[in-house]
Amino acid sequence: MPKTLTEKILKGQAGELVQRSIDLIMCHDVTTPPAIKMLKKIKVKKVWDPDKIIVCPDHFVPNKDIQSAQLAKELHDWVQEQGIKHYYQLGCHGVCHAILPEQGHIKPGMIVVGADSHTCTYGALGCFSTGIGSTDAAYVLATGKLWFKVPPTLRFNLTGKLPKGTTAKDIILYIIKQIGVDGAQYKAMEFGGEVIDQLTQEEKMTICNMAVEAGAKNGIIENTQWQSDPDSKYEQVFDYDLSQLEPMVAYPHLPSNGKTITQAVEDKIRINQVFIGSCTNGRYGDLKQAAELFKNQKVKTRTIVIPATTDIYKKCLQNGLLEIFLEAGCVVSTPTCGPCLGGHMGILAKGEKCVSTSNRNFVGRMGHPESQVYLASPLVAAASAIKGTISDPRKQMV
Amino acid sequence: MQANIHVYPKDSINTDEIIPARYLNSDQESELAKHALEDLDPNFIKKVGAGDFIIAGHDFGSGSSREHAIWALRGAGIQGVIAKSFARIFYRNAINNGFYAIECPGLDQKLKTGIKIDLNLDQGFFTAGKKKYSFTPIPDFVKDIMQKGGLLKTIQ
Q: Which of A57, A310, A346, B43 is 20–30 Å from A92 (CA)?
């Protein structure tokens, strides 16, 4: 029977319950310490395979307060005790979903889980990858296995020629606007078509990263070796011609609340902060796009730029991007998830508005419950930082 | 089983609302409970009692994979959530913790905070006054995990 790529990797048909061996698990500083306590409680002394565990403290690094420092220490001590060598601690650290692909841990055809909802990012490289909670993580750490219900697949064929000034972020915000925040609930989202074929690996990750914002179990993109069978059964096929796509802005408080930049400019939205970074848009290509707009410009809004990993940070330094950001009046932080989840490094006050390149604009996501987050691409974020209002990057591009 | 209900009818009540990330520097249930649902209803913790249920719309528990969302609700005394539908990671986390996540698409506006419901988990329905609301009975493999007291108990 022909299979979709997700069915092929999980070796089952949609709807089937399967127990599978896990090729890789990603652990970070918020969801892993509880899993460690659970393992101690059930007296599991050794993890199943230390080489298949990647530990990336990223949410509250560098430690933001005493309590988070305690959790980080629990994680650190456990990593030492278990002999886990893939440990990206401060100095070689970064946002987990940028680190794993960058450091070559992700291979097509793998089954990957991570104790973080944006683990769906890695599907861009042709693997099955999904987010889990702490108990599931503890189960995997103990046994190397996990149960799954094989999801049905929604196929997205993206055709046409992506217009200048629109990016992978605009594509995924557009799709989520079409299908809604639970439009892919429990399902796989498979992205393909000529638009996808022309994207870089980084851009593909931006798209798969936000599959969870439509409720999906995983996002996935085929490659030369790993593909859905020609006659595989999709639950639904969506055909979008993106030739007329505009830059998109998701208004508060849902990622599905997308409007075109033309609409957003008409709404004359004054902003208090811009954040460029996160597992969605903190990679080198994202920062390079922003830097091109910042060159010889000054920001009118406080602007926080966070390269997603230490290697990206170094590359920004070597290629002069850090200087462009600083000359424009931005601040550049060491890698952290920080402001994206209202952790630290850029919390919003009551009534403040932020344009963010991250993935969620829920109530209180980046700070005060009465603050507001507008999701957009690095180009829209940079253009808006320069003007002080939500602005169209196409007008500023040379 | 009789239970009090607290009705929050909106869709997509996400895990940032259930327990904001500013409190994730703790993984202690009693600590998290103090802030359960505070961005949605600052008085939530004062209103709820042991064994109560939450009634909600579609896509309950969307967003982050933080299991802290379950622990915060459980710490506040909540025994389970009855929603029109659930986000998948929250649903899995609920099962794994032996916390009731009951999918009931037919919830309606007659259900008000403060009334009592009578739950029949085996047969898949609850009653409120004279009205009966059916839900998908909990699948056997889920029941097995829940009866053992959570996923990790199935390892030994």
A: A346
